[in-house]
Amino acid sequence: MNLKLLMGNEAIAYGAVEAGVQVATGYPGTPSSEVLSTLARLALEKGFYVEWSINEKAALEVAAGASYAGARAIVTMKQVGLNVAADPLMTLAYIGIKGGLVLVVADDPGPHSSQNEQDTRIFARFAGLPVLDPATPAEAREMAKYAFELSEKLSLPVILRPTTRTCHACQDIELAEVTERPRPASGFEKSPNWVILPGLALRRHAWLNQQQEVARELLEESGFNRLINLEGEHEQAEAGVIACGVSYNYVREALNLSWLKIPVLKIGTPYPLPVRPVLDFLTRVKRVLVVEEQEPAVEDQVIALAWRNKMITGISGKNDRLVPREGELDTDKVKTILGKFLETASAVPEATAGAPELPLRPPVLCAGCPHRASFYAFKEAARGTDAIFSGDIGCYTLGVMAPLNAVDTCLCMGAGISIAAGLHRAEPNRRQVAFVGDSTFFHSGITGLINAVYNRANVTLVVLDNRTTAMTGHQPHPGVGRTATGEQGIPVDIARLVEACGVEFVREVDPYDLEASINAARAAMEYPGPAVVIMKRECIALSKKQKSYLIDHQLCTECGLCLEDPGCPAIGRPEGRPEITQNCYGCGICAQICPSNAIREGAR
Amino acid sequence: MNLDILISGVGGQGSVLASRALALTAMERGLAVRTSEVIGMAQREGSVVSHVRIGEELYGAIIPDRRADFLLGLELAETARALNKLKPGGIVLTGTTTIVPATVQLGLSTYDREAITNYIKKQAGKVFFLDLEELSRRAGHARTGNVVILGALSTLPGLPFGSDQMLQAILRFVPGQFLELNRRAFETGRAAMEVA
Q1: In sequence order, which ranges of A157-234 are alpha helices (DSSP H)?
Q2: Rounded to two decimals, what is the model's pTM?
Q3: Per the database record, which ranges form the 4Fe-4S ferredoxin-type domain (chain A) (predicted)?
Q4: How many A×B Cβ pairs under 8 Å?
Q5: Which end of chain B is less packed: N or C, by CB atoms within 10 Å?
């Protein structure tokens, strides 16, 4: 017996290992990252290949290549990562695959850690690919295994789409012992069918459309779709619920809490929607409520199915605004929705009476974070100007928080430099500064930089090089050179790369040296044409605390600059006057800011 | 039996270890478990909650409102923030530790310790206030408040496992050189409840 407490993402990784995965690729993104980091941990022992790719497009292409040669491959990313991988994906659906190819695309309704709430189930339908939607970590692991089989049966990539509440939930799971090494790949066989051209595309488009019906038939047999609370073949009911993914949990628990027993059809394969179980349900239940998060992916298919079969079953959900399209669902919300749908008196939730005002506690940059120092330096250098600071995706997006207020725009991975270039075209006399993290620079920032150089945009790019992909859990990237499985690869030097792109102003600075940083920032912003400053200092989570600082109250005038300017969480006023707490990491920025020289090294 | 435990705190206080350790203890007793933790952006000094659900018939990992049997709070205001999850008559163990966020220094919000304390007293069926800062210092390291509070919890009735089983589960998450420290932290939490 091998019972383990596994996070959904770990469970997916184990499912892939049980399926004999041979190649695993991905780009980190919350809530998906732990799938690939778990696979990286298991790779050497189990004998398969794992890489953190430079971005999702590269990840999918590497996996596709492996699959062309007959290897089973998995690709992991978050929902917005699929946009980056969309180009290869949409045509790979035409070409088809040989070795099973599974994309794990984690959705983030809420959103908790994302810039949007896009629904991968809709994307799957757009691409013509089957999508599996797990309700629990245990089911996610079963689906991961099944997805490889399904992929090979259909010769199509298959998408496994967990949401945050499956990715980051833990469950007790019984694991199978995997002793066999993955089978060797059968090998690439040359054929014109691997080369997409318009003529082939037309033929394969027709094939892809046929495969939708083949997939639908295969999924009709799947145990991931099942019926509860409707026993016997002929039993009928007034009302029932169709629930997809994690929403199934909320429906079951809400029914239990409301002492209700009505039929529920669980859907684990939202696209292509299996016809038979749904039609059977519509025949036996007079009114149906469809409960799912995000888009009405299942609901719209159910409505179409009912229409085509001339059924008069009432179908409620998002289209009649009972179920919200935005944000996450939970048991309490579903309880209220069920109350409305069933027209039962739903208990009015008791307000938590007399709650005092609680302090706002948004996430902030850590004490000692080098990004804080970098933002501070550029703000100082830009003081008195109307410079615009364009941000990007990573920990440093938190530079938007007060008191730094150092991020004026943020859109998507790698966008900052090009947004700055566009702002420059509209307002040529305004200073434009774009900030990008090291991993994001490699992901897609570099294309924007080359575009800026080629078109001579007068912008400054600040690469916040903290030697890791910090936000998602410290994955390595090309600048570090270390690979996903810990081997030393070839580190790609950002400064040399930037020079090779044609940038003539390139400086590398340690953000903990405030004076040098401000000087480099000024020089870069005054430079006519693209300028790059690389702020290089390892993430504090990866390096041990060096020293602490304290405030000498003999010298402190309580001017509040150290509190109000950098916004370091290690400085507060526990008893009225400014104090440095034990959270101090020892970056020394406050000591360099203090006009009274009241901050010095030493333990409190 | 079904048992729901909510752990609240500030990113970096170790609520993930606490919920995983509780879940592992229950799992090793043959019970089904679910946990849900905040991983990602909100970790960085933001409000975090971990859900632990133990029992026979489990669905989602998120505890519905007013269903938690226990609320373990590692930071005073975060305890208050999570109180809507506590069932009527539920038990609260909370640190008296306050971590004042930058928004308060900047005048964007307030931290009224007394009002928050009174609110916790009013809402909880029973509340134990623990000076986690002092207790973890006594145990040997300021960052062991999560284990101290688990030690305190282990003295209360209503858990489907014993304190030894809890301690063993905790130690399985801890690297070798910190085993003794965490054992002490757990015992310190237990001892604090004898006085409380």
Answers
A1: 164-167, 198-220
A2: 0.96
A3: 547-569, 576-604
A4: 167
A5: N
